[in-house]
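Hi there, hope your week has been kind to you so far. Do you reckon you could talk me through the fold, stretch by stretch? Thanks so much in advance, here it is.
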Amino acid sequence: MRVTLRQLEVFCAICQGGGVTAAAAAVAMSQSAASQALADLESALDGLLFQRAGRRLILNNRGRALLPRALELLERATEIEAQLREGAALPIKVRLAASLTIGNYLLPALISRFLAQRPQASVELAVANTGSVIEAVAAFRADAGFIEGTCHDSDLISHPWREDELVVIAAPTHPLARKRRIAAADLGAAQWVLREVGSGTREVFVQAAQHARFDIRNALTFGHNEAVQAAVIAGAGLGCLSKSVVGPALRRGELKALRTPFLDLRRPLHLVLHRRRYVGASLRAVLAACGAKIG
């Protein structure tokens, strides 16, 4: 057999780190040694795995076909070593991606409790909007993703995780904050402060507005929940965010939740995995700690 695990480790590190320099640091090799390992792997497999664009390495079709298999081989080898070495604990190194509400408000406590029990484990959490999380899982840059929106990527499998609910918010001085009965027309006449396109929060709100048949007058768009909340508190318009985000501000009286029973603002939160991603013992342990069930 001409292919070695070390070569595959370098290959996967290049895919996940974006280049040889980052890969070399990740696997504790010199850059020249990492470059040679990649060259040896491509020679052993009788063809290139990347397109070269200057210093950039871009996976070609052969590389994309190899990546999930290489990741599985490496993880299975790690599991075998841990099982056969007496007293050796399974090393856990997992990369998660989560959309903003989940990543900032729901996962940190769950991951922290897991790490308190498994202090040798390593869990990396990247926080971005739903679209970016889906892209990361599809490209194997993340082992698993947690999203607020809908996943339309056929390469990914979506598993129900838990339910969340959004709420329409206003500054206490906003005219609608003092109105007892609010109609869809009132929301259509108001200015809005929303999350960016690609956000699961925005997707749910837009769908609810369409169902209620009012147009959204978008005054401001922000890429973070905190910015939306601050703008609404300052009187820039109405907003729509998760209850888990705005709960403290509501309790402090900085915001008021509007009664909008005609809007369906419930949303399922999902775990997404690549169809070809091997789910080994280390990833299963982390997902179980987060309350995710994958069968």
Remarks:
- The chain has three domains: 5-84, 93-162+269-289, 164-266.
